[in-house]
Amino acid sequence: MKALLLVGxxxxxxxxxxxxTTVLISRYSSSLFPWATYSANLLGCLLxxxxxxxxxxxxxxSSDLKLLLITGFCGGYTTFSAFxxxxxxxxxxxxxxxxxxxxxxxxxxxxxxxxxGMLIAKSI
Length: 124
Fold this sequence. Notes:
transport; cell inner membrane; membrane; FluC; mainly alpha
């Protein structure tokens, strides 16, 4: 029961932050490229790398923090289902190149962001 509460609290906060990210980025972008989802996914990758790196560096073995921050918060914040849906929409509307670019850039920069988060965690 405790694990469910930790994941739920983290996920709720992550979902709220995801919504606020969309609101903020949508104010400044009106392009075809889905910048809000891309930004949330990239920041989520950076944060998961940072959280993992800090927890490992501090030798925190607490599964509670992992459930709250990684499974809950990052799971609620990142938006892979929205990412998949946006790509399907782009493909169905004839923007296949934009979809392929979005997929490639998201995957590569996401991996780099996780690595970056881990590097940042090592330096603090």
